[in-house]
Specification:
35% of the residues lie in helices and 29% in strands. It is of the alpha+beta class and 179 residues long. Helix 1 (15-29) crosses helix 2. The radius of gyration is 15 Å and the shape is globular.
Length: 179
Amino acid sequence: MTATHVRVREIEPLGPLFEGAIAVYADAFALPPYRDLDRGREVSARIRDTHRFRTGFRFLIAEDNGAVCGMAYGYRGEEGQWWHDAVARWIGPAAASAWLAESYEVVELAVHPSAQRRGIGTALLEALLRGRRERTAVLSTRTDSEAHRLYHRLGFDYLCEMTFTAGGWPFYVMGRRLR
């Protein structure tokens, strides 16, 4: 499977395709370094209860022969949102103004382990950001994962390394100019 054989499209966060996307997410994050067996259920609840109501929300899937093999979603970042405010405090007012004032947050991106390293993550990310009117795209990813290399290759700069909770895993916060 290559990205050229994969169809990326937007869906609503409900129904069998959404459930397939959450299953892909759960499979991807069950592996090291994450080993998080409950993360799919948590992400599904966050999307349904909160995230789908945010400005600019988009949920994309990648399909190969009708089977979901990847997912990504994001929305416009705004003051008062937990991630936005945590990053703003960490990076300070000047960097927050430059990177977060008009930002699109790439909240999650996952590709099924059997489909990784075939351009599907790139296709999902580029489709998610295509046509966005925000100045920047921002995201965070654990420092011990390989994901930050993909994002860096796709034009994201390292803005800082931080933890979101006391004693928690370190994350890279990364940003890319969209205009």
